Hints:
The chain has helices spanning 20-30, 45-48, 61-70, 87-104, 122-143, 159-166, 180-185, 190-197, 211-217, 237-244, 260-273, and strands spanning 3-9, 34-36, 39-40, 55-56, 74-75, 78-83, 108-112, 146-149, 174-179, 201-206, 250-255. The protein is α/β, with parallel strands linked by helices.
Amino acid sequence: MARIQIGINMEFVRHHDMSFVAGVEKAAEIGYEFIEPMVHWGRELMSEAGYFHTVSMFEDPLDIRAICEKYKVRCSGLSAHSPLCKPDISVNYLRSAIRFAAELAAPIVNTDEGPKPDFTDEATDHVLMTYTLTLATRAAEKRGILIGLEQHQQYSKTPAGLDRIYGLVKSKSLGINFDTGNAYLAGADPYEWLERCRDRVIHMHAKDISLKQSQDERGKVTGTPVGCACGEGVIDWKRVIDILKPVQRTICFSVECGTIDQAAASLDHLKSLI
């Protein structure tokens, strides 16, 4: 039977102009035991000034790990979304994230195929993704890290499209980071889709979609950065949990919402069901 954890993607403090450390402290204060940091390369003004929640991979991951230990939270994974169709960007970025995750004790690195180049066709894009995923999974296998593929862009917006990307390489390190909100907004039935791939799900972005966003965007977009509070939108979380119950692994529901209040409400709702 699945062991379900509840975590929070650090996007929840993005609109509050909070630093990573302040965000970790707030997540712990709300009651979360797991967080999902977002990592970037290099240095940029907003994070360095303490107004943004992302973590530079120029930092020592052991220092980030110490911050998590201070506030008694663990990392369910890293948000390391990178365009798989652009290996000139994604190969080194993902390998850096995998090495960072290994020292941070974050078991999963989440990504998606990202925006495609404007000069390639579908066949070429899948060759490029094969190249990227081959090198990324080789790095992940050596370190015991899993890679979670998320439905978020042009090819992964359907169950068949996500399956095709997943099947590009054969690796024990490859799994699915299922995003409930993205699946719903793309126009698919999120419950049928989850049942189809649940044996490959290693992590979840627990994203609910408000009725207004559903009416405005469903079938018109392939994803959204964050959703509303879990339990306040269109997603049936009890049904999601029931679908995953037979899975024999630990799966973290990493809540993706836009505010601190939504993070607190999401935790209360999910805890009442699990």
